[in-house]
Design brief:
By secondary structure, this protein is mostly helical. The chain has one domain (14-172). Helix content is 68%, strand content 0%. The protein has helices at 18-37, 43-65, 70-97, 108-119, 123-129, 135-167, 170-184, 203-218. The longest helix has 33 residues, at 135-167. The protein is elongated.
């Protein structure tokens, strides 16, 4: 049986999304940062790691849920974005309250960091690079990654919106897939020809004959009671 690629598509691979790859980098950087620079027992450790985790996991969950629910896909993708903004504030707060510098957009260090982050989507690269960096450098690195990931997620949301407008949701896809199958198999709904519903073409006659036979039997005509 030929697979319909437009109906319940199973080729969604969230790991190929640049936004997911960037979110994984953010998680790994945050995990290292929180455990190295925050005091043991500080609730911010768990909060930052959970926000980074949510920023990654919801992309995966939304991508898979999108097979059957475009609405859920959009919601989870936006939850992902919200989680990353929560994490962004944590990094900004960390720098501000400790008197550390958050690099300006045109700061040469920020320009260099943006260029590096655009080129690298492998979390292993960041895990290696941050081992001997200061908290200020790592926090600014994370901030840059979050901003870049946010741009990717916004683009992903806009693409999903256009896709929904053009293709509709799961119910519309199911209906269209059914209509395509009927057309390819020569099914004519109006004439009752083809497919299972082809029985209905003569169903009225069969029902009428059966009713007549039953009435005749009750009136003592025909069958064993009529003899």
């Amino acid at each position: 049986m030929e697979e319909n690629k437009d109906f319940l598509r199973q080729d969604n691979n969230y790991r190929t999304l640049k936004a997911f790859q960037k979110a994984e980098c953010i998680y790994d950087v945050t995990f290292f940062f929180a455990h190295k620079f925050l005091s043991i027992g500080d609730r911010t450790i768990d909060q930052m790691i959970q926000a980074a985790r949510s920023g990654k996991q919801n992309l995966a969950e939304g991508n898979i849920d999108g097979i059957t629910s475009r609405e859920m896909e959009l919601k989870l993708t936006n939850v992902n974005r919200a989680s990353l903004h929560e994490l962004l504030l944590d990094y900004e707060d960390y720098l501000r309250v400790r008197g550390l510098e958050q690099w300006a957009y045109n700061d040469p260090r920020c320009v260099q960091t943006r260029a590096f982050c655009k080129q690298h989507l492998d979390s292993a690269v960041y895990r290696e690079k941050i081992q001997d960096r200061t908290d200020e450098v790592i926090a600014n690195l994370a901030i840059t990654l979050i901003h870049q990931c946010d741009v990717l997620i916004r683009g992903l949301i806009e693409w999903k919106k256009r896709d929904f407008i053009e293709r509709g949701g799961i119910k519309e896809e199911m209906y269209q897939a059914r209509k395509d199958w009927q057309r390819k198999n020569g099914y004519n709904v109006q004439n009752g020809q083809g497919g299972r519903s082809g029985f209905s073409g003569g169903s009225g006659v069969h029902r009428g004959s059966h009713a007549t036979d039953c009435n005749n039997g009750q009136n003592g005509q025909g069958g064993a009671n009529g003899q």
